[in-house]
UniProtKB/TrEMBL annotation, chains A, B:
HAMAP family: TruA. The keyword Isomerase applies. The lineage of its organism: Eukaryota, Viridiplantae, Chlorophyta, core chlorophytes, Chlorophyceae. The keyword Isomerase applies. Belongs to the tRNA pseudouridine synthase TruA family. It catalyses: uridine(38/39/40) in tRNA = pseudouridine(38/39/40) in tRNA. Keywords: Isomerase, tRNA processing. Its EC number is 5.4.99.12. PANTHER family: PSEUDOURIDYLATE SYNTHASE, TRNA PSEUDOURIDINE SYNTHASE-LIKE 1. This is tRNA pseudouridine synthase.
């Protein structure tokens, strides 16, 4: 009842109604379970209460982490972030349901990774970045936090992503960019790279630019047709001698797709592949070319350290907690989605 | 005699004369020493022969080093570089006489540090960077190597230096720039910073912008009057959000001068100091203002991690081994300086 009254006092009318209804349902549910002799464990209660959805924007230096995804015995970004959230929110890991927009690989960096979690507390989003950053390691930083629509999904609601791939094209690698950029000694032909990059823009089957169905990789049933909006090769000479950046923006990415794209572009820049190969690779798509194990060769997949998840794009409505993003689908009493929306491919 | 003949065969006439004379003097000297019963140790011979002067341009990430200068029990850049040179040249540390243009402090980086050493071998300067980089740790890289005039001095021949100080001016520090940039949360007023920077350009007594004569610091007799040619505040928004760089170029620098300058400029940018304070500090110079321990306060010396020795300027003649840079001073038979030239202040 305390929760019910507090909700009514503090919140604007519309939200108050939602909250009071929620509290009502919880209290009634609890009463019902008590009457029928069912146990009311803390997990049941938290699952009922954990209905406020939050969106974090984080940046990290991935050098010392084995990627985003939680692993039993390796340091990962998810593990470090969950530990910080548990400390600050005084809660348990399982309750938060932390998920990220892009499950970055080992050694991949991020400047605009988006992470979602659920929580039963009405957090002061302006203070949360400071609280979290004070307990996070120095190579992970929370930039912003927003409350979101209750049916927000960090992966399915994403409209697209932008990745940056950094290269140092000079005789000797710049030690101040060694952690964040790949080194290419041979002078790169930017005109040829830009020609090849232009061929990639648009909607194509990118099977040849990914690890899908490679030997050892598990075959996937996902759609390999993606739309790239932009593939730019940018010179950043004023930042460091020989600094280059490949910027790739698209609606979705296959596993290691940006690293394949960067590898192909560097092979083109070095003169090892003609730009026309890119067009052929896009035409072949998932129909394996004869021989060569179903793959075009002649390039190396670019190393992880040059890759950075720069930005994930969302509809601005996601940051409005009173919005329902998917009105045609079934929601529970908190606005959470009960049906699943078609999965997008967020494999990079 | 073998050396004498090889010199005559291999080298162009002018150099050959110089070399044959040198060999002559060495052989005569050795004969003399033998006749008078003086020992001819390897050190004496190497000191005689080590008359080819080389100039290395190196870059390093100073994060994991206790600065440039050799220390008994700490990792320093000089130690790592000397170890690499000894491995590649198969010689002893003491023979090389390694010296740097700027003795960078602990944690300070470099993109254009210049290092001098002597060697009795005629090295293939085009292959040396690869040989050295193959044994150097990843955070130190040799960019180029040149043979220099025999009387070249890495410190005294320098015409000036350029330092870069990197800042991230945003709510939260960018973890991908954490090793190389200072973080300033409060928005910086670039116009005020540029006004203060403009006041520093020119010839002034920079005592107030250094650690000279501070309590604990040993008092120095050096000239505190320096000429700054350029103090620029550059915005690098396309590199990273909130990225700024303070570029300082001058004929010489006092100890920690660039970090003092950067600290003052950031205090000005944050509104903690009015730009006019800079003018007053330059006017006061080495005359201590009343109170406050002879120092202006109101700013913090900027941390080492943001500082990078960007470039050291030399007369182009230094890379010509047949030039004598200081014809008015006394030289030995190898062209090496016997008198010392007035020391410049390379204290940063």
């Amino acid at each position: 009842m305390g929760f019910y009254l507090r909700s009514l006092q503090r919140l604007p009318s519309l939200q108050a109604t939602m909250y009071s209804n929620a509290a009502n349902v919880v209290m009634t549910g609890a009463l019902g379970r008590m009457l029928y002799g069912e146990p009311i464990g803390p997990r049941w209660l938290l699952a009922r209460l954990g209905h406020l959805s939050y969106r974090l924007i984080i940046a990290y230096d991935g050098t010392d982490y084995c990627g985003w995804q939680l692993q039993p015995s390796a340091p990962t970004v998810q593990r470090a972030l969950e530990a910080a959230l548990c400390t600050v929110l005084r809660t348990e890991r399982g309750v938060l349901g932390v998920r990220a927009a892009g499950r970055t690989d080992s050694g991949v960096h991020a400047r605009g990774q988006v992470v979602q979690f659920s929580c039963n507390k009405d957090l002061d989003v302006s203070k949360m970045p400071y609280k979290l950053n004070s307990v996070l390691p120095h190579d992970i930083r929370v930039l912003r936090i927003h409350r979101t629509a209750p049916d927000f999904s960090v992966t399915c609601s994403a409209l697209g992503k932008c990745y940056h791939y950094s290269v140092t094209n000079s005789e000797v690698h710049d030690p101040l960019r060694n952690r964040y950029a790949m080194h290419v000694r041979k002078p790169l032909d930017l005109a040829a790279m830009r020609e090849a990059a232009a061929a990639m823009v648009g909607t194509h089957d990118f099977t040849q630019f990914s690890n899908i169905g490679e030997e050892g990789g598990r075959p996937r049933k996902r759609n390999p047709v993606k739309t790239l909006r932009r593939v730019d090769v940018v010179k950043l000479e004023e930042l460091a001698p020989g600094a280059l950046r490949i910027e790739v923006e698209g609606n979705g990415f296959l596993y290691k797709m940006v690293r394949h794209i960067s590898g192909v572009l560097m092979a083109v820049g070095e003169g090892r592949l003609p730009p026309a190969t890119v067009t052929r690779m896009l035409e072949v798509g998932s129909n394996a070319p004869p021989g060569c194990n179903g793959r075009y060769r002649g390039y190396n997949v670019a190393p992880a350290k040059g890759l950075c998840l720069h930005e994930v794009f969302y509809d601005p409505r996601v940051d409005d907690p009173s919005t329902i993003l998917y009105p045609d689908l079934l929601h529970d009493e908190y606005g959470r989605l009960l049906e699943s929306i078609p999965a997008s491919d967020d494999d990079e």
